[in-house]
Amino acid sequence: GDSGDEKQGKSGSSCDFETNLCEVLPEFNLQPGWIRRNGQSGMGPPYSDHNGKDSAYFLSLSSEMQSSSAALRTSVFLPTDEEHPCQIRFHYWVSQMSGTLTVGLQKRSEDTVTNIWQVPGELRNQWNVNTITINSTEKYEVIFSGMLETQRQGENVAIDDITFSEGC
Fold first, then answer.
1. Which residues of 62-101 are buried (b: 16+ CB within 10 A; e: fewer)?
2. Sign of the CA dihedral with 7 first, then 12, 13, and 14 last
């Protein structure tokens, strides 16, 4: 509403998925299962991006796909400092029955992913927005993981307009 998400710092980055992924989300970090689509694709909800445009693109993990879970990894980020934490803002859609979206943090020195945010499928088929703040003393990657527990038609997890602050 206030165009705050359109204003980017010099080193901030935004991924709107209109043409492809952005440099922070390299194509090779997109696991099979995520598809870039729009509301006109005939693949069920969501039928538009978070702004209500049915021709605008977003990433979706659909129940019609073979894979029921997939992850999206960012590039490796440098450690944050206290004055400039990394803030990641994104829009998400989770079907009400069986979808889950998780955001995790993987430090370069660790093999495990630490979940830092999760939303279960209790939402009522609508776009929502969230901002996550990350402070890390080590290099790290952020992993967006979608999962569908059932293969019912119309079940979906989607993500749109991921914005990374200058601190990332």
1. bbebeebebbbbbeebeebeeeeebbbbbbbbbbeebbbb
2. negative
**Token pair 């440098």: residue:** 78
pTM of the model: 0.84
HSE at residue 36, side-chain half, CA atoms within 13 A, is 15
- In DSSP terms, 17 is beta-bridged to none
Question: Which ranges in the chain belong to alpha helices (H)?
Answer: none
Query: Residue 48 is encoded by which pair of tokens?
Result: 């538009």
The mean pLDDT of the chain is 82
Give CA–CA dist 156/107, Å, rounded: 29
Please tell me the predicted confidence (pLDDT) of residue 10: 42
What domains are there in the chain, each with its CATH number?
14-164 (2.60.120.200)
Q: 119: pLDDT confidence band, cut at 50, 70 and 90?
A: confident
Contact (Cβ atoms closer than 8 angstroms) between residue 24 and residue 8: no
Spatial separation of the C-alpha atoms in residues 38 and 161, rounded to whole Å: 13
CA geometry: angle 19, 25, 27, nearest 5 deg: 65
Instruction: Specify the 3-state DSSP secondary structure of 29.
Output: helix
